[in-house]
Amino acid sequence: MWKRPIRRLRWFAGQLSTERIQACDELLADCCRSFNQHCAKGIEPNAKRIQEHLDHSLMPVTALNPHIDYEKTARISPTAYLGDISLRDAALKLAFLTADPFDNWVRPEDMSQPPNESGSSH
Hints:
Blueprint: H1 3-40, H2 47-55, H3 70-83, H4 87-93, H5 99-105, H6 108-111
C-alpha cells in the first residue's frame, strides 16, 4: 500500500532537483552574459597601475628564498612595508644583494605562470 506513494515521491524529488539544477544553470548563464555585457566588455588593462601594484607587492619576495637565506628574505618584506618602499629598494637598503641579482631573481611575470616541464616558468 505505501510502496506506490513512496515511489511517486522519489520520482517527484528527482524531478524537482533536476528542475532546480536547470533553473540555476539558466540563472548562472544569464549572470555571465550580463556581467560580460555590462562590465567586462571593453575593459582595457591600465598598465601603469598594474606596474604600481607589482612594484609594491610583498609576495614576490618568496623568489629570493633559494638565493639568500630565509632570515634575510623575511626581513625584506617588513622593511618594504613599514618604509612604504618596494621590495627591491628594501633589499638594497638592507644591503642583502645588489640590483642586478634582484632584478634577475624577482620576476613577477615568471611567477604568474605554471612551470613548464623543465621546472621553469618561461
